[in-house]
Amino acid sequence: MTNNRFCIKPYVFFEIGTDGYCYFCSRLWNDSYCIGNILEQSFQDVWNGDKAKELRQSIIDNNYKFCDTNLCIMPTGKPIDTPVADYPEEVSLCYDNTCVQQCVYCRDEPHIMSEEEQKKWDDLIEPVFIPMLQKAKLVTVNVAGEVFISNHSKKLIKRIAEVYPNIKFAIITNGILCSEENLKKLGIADKITDIRISIPSCIEKTYNKIVRNGDYNKVMENLKYVSKLKKQGLINVFHINCVLTSWNYKDLIPLTKFAKELGACVHVMIAKDMGQNTKFLNQLDKYLITKPEHPEYNEFVKIMNNPIIKENDDFLINDSFKHLTPLSIKEVIKNKINFYKKYGWNKD
Ligand SMILES: C[S@@+](CC[C@H](N)C(=O)[O-])C[C@H]1O[C@@H](n2cnc3c(N)ncnc32)[C@H](O)[C@@H]1O
Ligand code: SF4
């Protein structure tokens, strides 16, 4: 599998995750190899530290011993023969888990950074984050929490936009505050390339059951705004991210039609226990509609075989979350995971 491939991610991509641990792949979805901690080490000691060099060397040696090559869609590039890299081109900020919504599969309690926690991260803005971004083309915010709620994330984004007017942003959000006004306040309304809005359904009743403390009407309004940006060609990627469970699978057809009207692509992610310890995740087996043992599995398969979904190139379903790789996002969109084969639909 690794023959003729050279993964360039460790030369271009840097993610800062929970508690400051850093990665070359998205930690949230893959069990990726930790290269250090930005709260304890300097950026260069992480980015070009022993662990980072060791991982790059494993790619140069083509043994990929730190990677799960079965799970990974590797971004390929021209071979590079040094374990040392300059600065990242893409940075994903994935450590700020501030959010006041409580989607059943994500959290049971809201989280706001304490003053102390915020200061700890604010103090990294000038000495660490700004210099680290000197070659960056794209910054992704915020895979861990809700960017529009966090004072720290907002402060950081404003500063990045001020210092580096050419950096583009990829935003992942629940959509409640993703308005033109709020993007303007952050100074990035004209610097966005990619917006992913997470909603479990376009049907209000289902939305309210899953997104506790949500705001259906606001999300609908902001989806229309983002749709306009997409239709005018002002953003490249517009996804509706939908976490699939037995609570919302029946809404997939209306969601797909709804997304089509908006010019968005539906990106379905199967609910996964990432250790958040919510009541819902603690009983996840009961809600995993993609398991053939689930009592409603056949009904789910029928829905997935509906031409509105089956024949829709803008409907993606991904059970290993390989899609969160900004560099290759366009490729990934084209390369739908072969979900049909995996769940045996051809046999039905
Ligand atoms: C943690 S959220 C943070 C960004 C933002 N607040 C949002 O909701 O999009 C990032 C993505 O993870 C998804 N997500 C949350 N919990 C999940 C779970 N247990 N399994 C799969 N996806 C999950 C969300 O739907 C969202 O698309
Ligand atoms: S999925 Fe996003 S909006 Fe929902 S609780 Fe998690 S961070 Fe908040």
Structure, briefly:
The chain is of the alpha/beta class and 348 residues long. 33% of the residues lie in helices and 16% in strands.
Key attributes of the depicted protein:
348 residues; alpha/beta; ten-stranded mixed β-sheet; two-stranded antiparallel sheet; disordered C terminus; binds S-adenosylmethionine; binds iron/sulfur cluster
Description of the molecule:
- Strand 7, helix 7 (180-185) and strand 8 (192-198) form a beta-alpha-beta unit.
- It contains 15 helices and twelve strands.
- Residues 320-348 have low confidence and may be disordered.
- It has helices at residues 9-12, 43-47, 50-60, 115-122, 125-132, 151-163, 180-185, 204-210, 216-231, 252-262, 284-287, 297-304, 307-310, 329-334, 339-342; strands at 13-16, 21-23, 34-37, 90-93, 102-103, 138-141, 168-173, 192-198, 211-212, 237-244, 265-270, 315-318.
- It is of the alpha/beta class and 348 residues long.
- The structure holds S-adenosylmethionine and iron/sulfur cluster.
Please describe the topology of this protein:
Layout (H helix, E strand, L loop, with lengths): L8 H4 E4 L4 E3 L10 E4 L5 H5 L2 H11 L29 E4 L8 E2 L11 H8 L2 H8 L5 E4 L9 H13 L4 E6 L6 H6 L6 E7 L5 H7 E2 L3 H16 L5 E8 L7 H11 L2 E6 L13 H4 L9 H8 L2 H4 L4 E4 L10 H6 L4 H4 L6
Bound molecules: S-adenosylmethionine and iron/sulfur cluster (SF4).
S-adenosylmethionine binds next to β7 and β10.
